[in-house]
Amino acid sequence: MSTFHTSWQVRFADTDPAGIVFYPRYFDMVNGVVENWCAEALNWSFRKQLLEHKVGLPTVHLDADFLNPSFLGDELDITLQIISLGRTSCTLSIQASCKGEKRFIVRPVLVFISTESYKAQAFPDHIKDLMSQYVIDDE
């Protein structure tokens, strides 16, 4: 099992007047992590998906737990793993921490679709093989 790692520095635009990350900005971060994972780990950038292959990987559901606040300048360590991988969809676990303190856990469900029909379709075998390396082992 592999874990995708990346980082995100909290910027001024991420925060609200209280000086903490405004929770919808976490969803933007999560989408950025998924986009980076696709490009870096799967060699399957959003550009390649959308423009070359006319497919996409939209989020259709997500659960989120906000555990501790994040502040301007914090460097978030973010990990991505797959909780479940099906024929047309996957559920991810994306977790952020800063200096060992957990900040959020988001569990998005992504569905592989044709951008021409907007219907779910099976993941290509070579992509599913790469994705399977990130599936969390239940044992």
CATH architecture identity = Roll
CATH fold annotation = Thiol Ester Dehydrase, Chain A
Mean pLDDT: 96
Structural class: alpha+beta
Low-confidence stretches: none
Number of domains: 1
Number of helices: 3
Largest sheet features: 5 strands, antiparallel
How many beta-strand elements?
Answer: 7
The gyration radius over C-alpha positions equals 16 Å
Termini distance? Answer: 12 Å
**Approximate helicity band:** 10-25%
User: Order of strands across the widest beta sheet?
Assistant: 1-4-5-6-3
CATH homology superfamily name? Hotdog Thioesterase
Instruction: Give the DSSP E fraction (strand runs of 2 or more residues).
Output: 35-45%
* The level-1 CATH class: Alpha Beta
Approximate shape: globular
